[in-house]
Input
Amino acid sequence: MAATMRFRDRRWICALRAMLCVAGALACFVGTGSVLAQTWPSKPITLVLILAPGTGMDVIVRAYADKLSQALGRPVVVDNKPGGSGIVAVNAVLGAPADGHTFLVATSGVFAINQTVFKKLNYDPIADFVPVSLYLKSPFILVVRPTLPVQSANELVAYAKAHKGQLSYSSPGASTAPQLAVEMMKSLYSLDIMHIPYKSSPQSITDIVAGTVDLAFAEAGASFELIRAGKLRPLGVSSLTRLSSFNSIPPFAEAVGVSDFEAVSWHVMAARADTPRAILNRMHDEMKRAIKSPEVQERMVNLGLIPVEPASIEETQAYVRAEAAKWGTLVRNIGAAGTQ
Output
């Protein structure tokens, strides 16, 4: 009996030691994360953008990069790496150390569309990245050529049904967010409208003005002046809210009485998933402050973008997953899955 008790005592002592070792390791890990957050950043921070200089994304990022630099006490460098549907920039960030000094700035295409459109993708947007800050939505304006005999979104739907297969729409490319916005409308009403893809947004919009194409969900910033000049007729915006700079255009959802129609792109700052959480939390907090800056807000509104107060990292992860499911289903339904 005594031998059995001694054996049990040794087992209990071993288990206690193991638990103490685990607790010590966790304490060390937490302590390390805390120290990293206190010493970070230790060098310039690089924001890698998926779009070229001069784009709306570039303008906004450079505006809040200045705010971040002031707050963090280190230079914040903007590095434009367009190409490959955002994959060039993604690879650059995945190839950099996960030390909180390199962040990716991308759109919904990278995080919610690519994984369904591409046959093979060398990254997993959910597993490889953490969305630190989703800070704006980029809506599209449903525009038609002025000679098209429709004055509202409902009239357009009725006209398209009455002229099955006779209308066309443009986009800046296959499986881009503007194209998928029209496909969402087509799916909602079982419309037959031919897609004409272009290589750029300005060209796709210009051909509507010229009467070569009938309609599009066009990028807001690229269509404002043409709308003001009467060269395009706006029927609705793809967001659930109106645009501050063009308040007279109703949301498409409101115009047609469908409460949940939202087809927007969005911009998000993300980091490698293995970046220390304490650093991600610090950058998230600094981004919330930077985005609230009147200068940054004004630039967003002037470009036809909708400022969004960054939600928590967990809430943003849930939103990205929901968007990936929504767009993925649509891409599969229109037969575009694995086409690139």
Observations:
- Residues 170 and 325 are 25 Å apart (CA to CA).
- The chain has two domains: 40-138+267-333, 140-256.
- The radius of gyration is 25 Å.
